[in-house]
Amino acid sequence: MSEVKRVSADQIPQIDISSLMTGEADIEVAKSLHQASQELGFLYVTGHGLDPHLIKQLYQSGLTFFRASVEQKQSVRVSQNHRGWLGSGQAKMDDKALSDFKESYIWGIEDACHQEDHFLRGSNMWPDFVPQLETLGNAYLKQAHQVAYHLMRGFALGLGLKEDFFLQTTGKPLSRASLVYYPHQEETNPNQFGVGPHTDFGTLTLLCQDQVGGLQVQDVNGQWLEATPIEGSLVVNVGDLLSHWTAGAYKSTPHRVINSSGYERLSIVLAYDPNPETVIDPRSIIGANYKGDLAAMTCGDYLYRRFNKAFSYRN
Known about the structure:
By secondary structure, this protein is an alpha+beta fold. It has helices spanning 18-21, 27-38, 52-67, 70-74, 133-158, 240-245, 283-286, 299-310; strands at residues 4-5, 14-16, 42-46, 84-86, 103-108, 176-182, 195-198, 204-209, 215-218, 224-226, 234-238, 255-257, 265-272, 279-280, 297-298. The chain has eight helices and 15 strands. The strands form three sheets. An eight-stranded mixed sheet has the order 2-3-11-8-13-6-5-4. A five-stranded mixed sheet has the order 1-10-9-12-7, with no helix packed on it.
C-alpha cells in the first residue's frame, strides 16, 4: 500500500453534464470531457439527473443484502452469465494479485436477458429476502444507462465525430450494474485490497460512491490519489475498450480501493458496454493515417477473455 496523496477534490475534474442530459450538443461540455479523458481518465460528473431518493433506497437495500447470512446470499450465487452474488475472494483483477476482499451483486438489462449471443446474457437472480431490490435495481440501471448514453455522445463530440458515433450498435447492450461491498480492511497484508489495482475491462464505468471513501486513482507519474467522495456526483472513468477505440488517446487509469475507515463501504456501479458485435477499431476514429499496431476486436470477444481471467467461477 504505497503512500497516497491527499489531494483536494478539484484536482480531479468536475463536469456538469446537465446540458447533455437534455439532448443538447454542448460543445463546451464535450471539450471538457475530452480533455479530462486524455489526462487522468477519471472525473466527477454532476447534473446527471439520477434520482437521489432511488440511490438512497438502493444503497439501503444493498446493505441489507450484504449483511445477510452466507446461506441466504448463496441462494443467488453467481451464475455462468455473471448474474447474482459474487463472494469475497472470487475476483482477482490482476494475474499477480491476491484475491479481492470485496463482495458484489450483479444484474443486467431485463429485456436483453434472453438473447443467446454472449455469455454476459442471462436471467437476473433476485433475492427473495430483499424483495424491493428487483424494482430498485432495474430502475437504477435504466436511469444510469441514459447517463452513459449521453456521456458517449459527449465523448464523440469532443473527438470531432458525429454525436451518435459510439451509439450505432447499442440496441442490445452488454451493460451490467452491480452493488459492490467493501468490509473494513485491517492493514495486515500490504498486497491485498478491497479491490486491487486494475483498469476496468469495458467501455465506460459510472460509480455512485458513498461518503466512506477509499477509492484511489493512479496518475501518470504513478502517484496514488484519493478520489474524495463528492455528494451528489458520479465518478466516471474510461475503460480499456474506450481507450483502445481511441488508440490510447483516452486513458484507462489504474485504480484500487482500500477501505480502512472502520466502516462498511458500498458503491453502486454501472459498467456500460455496447452490443457484443460492436467492432472496436482505432482506425474508425483515427482513419487511414493510423500508424499503430492495435488490432480491431469485438466488444463481446474482449469481455469474454477478460472475464475468464478475472473471475474464478468462470473456471
